[in-house]
COMM domain-containing protein 3
Amino acid sequence: MELSESVMKGLQTLADPTVFDQKSFTIFTEVAFDSLVSPRGESVLGHPELKHIDQTTLKHCHTAATTFILEGVKQNADKSTISSCLEDAKFLNERVDTFYNSFQAIFLIFLIFLLSSFMFLSIDTCPPHVTDAEWRLEYCIKNSHVHKVNQPSYLISLNTERAGASSEINFSCTMEQLQDLVGKMKDAAKSLERATQS
């Protein structure tokens, strides 16, 4: 992921154990992620456990962390990409794991939000249906940071149609993500089948 110098500096400050001890880091991470999904979420500036940290530093770190999170969600970043970026910002392994676990949770929340929004928008209209699917296997040897990745990924293209208008949905996923998607689609199909039989 391409990150600005300001975002990298904010992440480096967040990684610094002299500024954020492990307890402060964990609280900051929880509050920062929560602020993205909850309109009534607590602010890092108002949290009593973070009062000892300079308010300007907190603002900068919060801006950097949320920018990084949203960029990761936008790019559908996998664990190696997230870990690589955080390691570049001098995060220790324990902090990388803490941050990535929260990232996975927020990624699922955004996915559920998008799916529910899609379902809400298509209540009174005919939802789009898949008319064709294509896929291609891609093998990534190195990432943009010149780190070895050696990981296959699948490029999926779904052609959809709604009320005579066609569109295309493109995305990339790993083997595990593809297996997870197929499992969720099978579960959804079974739920739909049960609902129509009731």
User: Anything to note?
Assistant: The chain has two domains: 5-120, 124-197. The first strand starts at residue 129 and ends at 142.
